[in-house]
Please model this.
Amino acid sequence: MMEKPKSTLLEVRDLAVRFAGRAGIVNAVSGVSFDLAPGETVALVGESGSGKSTVGLALMGLARVIPPGSVAGTVTLSLKNGGRQDVTKLSDREMQKIRGNEIAMIFQEPMSSLNPVHTVGWQICEAITCHQGVSGAAAAATALKLVEQLGIPDPDRCLHAYPHQLSGGMRQRVMIAIALSCRPSLLIADEPTTALDVTVQAQILELLKQVQAETGMAILFITHNFGVVAEIAQRTMVMYAGRIVEAGPVDEVFHAPRMPYTRALLDSLPRLDRGVGTRLPAIPGQVPGPSALPPGCAFHPRCGHAVTGRCDDAVPMLETCSAGHVVRCVRWAELTGEAP
Amino acid sequence: MLTIIVRRLLLAIPTMIALTALLFFTLTALLGSPAAVMLGQDASPDAIQALNARYGFDRPLYIQYFDWIASAARGDFGRSHTTQQSVASTILPCVPVTLELAAIAILLAALAAVFTNTLPAGRAILGPVVLGANLIGITVPNFMLGISLIFVFSVALGWLPSTGWTPWSSGLVEHVKHMILPVVTLSAYYFGVFSIVYRAELRDVEKRLFIQAARAKGISRSRVAFRHALPNAILPVITFVGLSMGQLTGGAVVTETLFSMPGTGRLLVSSIGSHDFPVMLAIAMMIVVGVVLMNLLADIAYTVANPQIRID
Amino acid sequence: MSSPRRIVGLALIALILACAVLAPWLAPYDPLRSSVAFLSPPSSANWLGTDELGRDVLSRVIYGARTSLVIGFGAALVALLIGAPVGLIAGYTGGRVDMVSVVLIDLFVSLPGLVLALVITVMVGPSLQNLVLVLGFVMWPSVARLIRGQVLPIREATFVEAARAVGGSPAWIIGQHIWPNTMRVVAAQFAVTVSFAIFTSSSLSFLGLGIPPPTPDWGGMVRAGYDFLAINPLLSLGPGAAVGVTVLGFYLVGSTVE
Model:
């Protein structure tokens, strides 16, 4: 297990999300455990289908579960009023007080995450009114201030605009405004910059860091982009086929990855110091769907270092390889000596 | 937005002209001789000749058409062959009856369709009931539904009258009592149609990201359903409401006949039965104009309701 | 594939088909034979009672299936024969032809079908073949619109490009590639069209424009039975229910074949 920071904001233990698929129950997420301290940014990295978005939704109580199926495990949150609560045990109605208020979420597509038939101002005020009980002019004033602070030009006109009248970057700022309107202690960002231009991407990341510095909120940043991880996160967790396969400080995981999957992912990134004309190494095969997981280590069919009898037997446990750095691979110690 | 409306209006006028002309020529062509139709199969050639001369049916068709249009613009639609009164005075009293019936029935159907399919709790509990009502509405013809209702509520229980009309002047309660069965009968079909359209759209809307984002804000499920999903899903229903009103311009033929309501629908049927060509023609023209106008209104309503089109 | 709705629909259609085909064996009496026992209530001899001319209602309802099915299938076929080519050509050709077709079809579809059928039927006189033609004429635009909607995306699909590259003529492409793909949807729509045809034709009969008596015709029977609603409601409700059941059956089948 990772070393527990002094005061934990979020404690996730053995989070599992199961869906009822056509061929039976599928495990979209299994055995995910991690901690989040106030004010820190942790990146959850993985390819599509790794289950990373599902983790985010499960923390919000929004993972679509079709019976028979369930969210198992515990997610203990330190509330703003001082108490601690396992949010998986809450009913949907009770969860509504947590969403937007204690934990907020921003999504990938700014155009589709805003309601096209309401003005932006209306949508920001809705969140404020819902959780803070103020309405009308008071809420509008708060919304205006928020929008100003987030650096949106011409804030008053923006509030009266409809989503389709704004640019992608502005819309994402609006989303952030909505998320921040009730001062949550945790922000879950599900690929918020993926659909944006690179320059806008940088601006949004800068904005998030700024907001975090001012409010001290923690960020769980879900992404598949390592560049973004390096920019914004202190710790990172790598997911594959619904499980965390490596986790640790960003510097360490990037420069000394222990899990072959992480190493292969990092290798497949385009780099300036590789020779011109060399081919990008790609990971052979495809990510297995949650209903067709191979036995043992889920990555072993695609792993160049897999050993029959050891890697295809049982699912490996998470082992600590150095301070704060864990890995889910039975061969990590042997493979460390080899060249990355 | 104004430009769109103006453009549509300008398009509607030539459409109306083209359609009314088409209608006029088709009707007169199909009839062969309107006079023969009016007098019946066994009329003598002389009688037909006389009638032709009297109504001007022996003139070239296009002259007849322009003449008709010109008179119609002045409000003169000729004289009813059966009652000898002006067509306008025959049709006019029927219009408010049909209007009231159609408007209430369609509005009721739309409101019921939207609300029963939006309530999250309602969908779970009322679900099968609503689906059943939809199915009945679109498969059981008006007249069967009407007669069943008449049998249950009028003949067996005696709660409601079986004919559909007393004027407002006779008292509000009486008026309402007489309207209940016809309104329910007429709206059943539209309830089915609107529900199907709305449900399909709602299913699509609920899959969209902003619904999940709205839930993530922590607002209640019913608020998400009514303030976020509904305003998006209702747009096609608005179009259908307009189209349906257009279709009922000529009256709800079956319902009015069944409940003996003095509306334009029943007038159309009786004028057809009595071979009253001037009245028939006037009502048919009215339908064409009504359909084009209501289509236009539906288009405009959709444009206004959807900010993505309304603004720039 | 075998959803409950579909099974119920097929069962209902089978029932009505059986009535139509096996009428001479299923019906207890001759539907045209009048007797002195008019307006008698339901009894073991006459399950639904007798009408104002002493004819057995049940037998007339059973035989009525023939008229309804003939009109339903006939009209749907006419609609298909006119609408399919129009839809195919409009969808495949595109451009001006398509634009004009769309405007025409949209306008036609927004006209009240029953009124249109009413007016035309009065002109030409109600007979079996006229009813079939008129109803088919009223319904072809919706068929054309549906088929055009199917053709549009297929037109751009790669395999059509491939066929064109090999030198296939438009007619050949339509026949070989586009038509088979639309068949499935057309079959579903056919069932719905049949249900709509029976729905509308029974309304026409109710208004007095159906097959002339004494042929048993559901809509007309409902109209005649209305006067005697207090005496024997089954005179109207029997044939009325038959219409509802038939329309429901075809609609259920048509709406679940997707």
Summary: The mean pLDDT of chain B is 82.
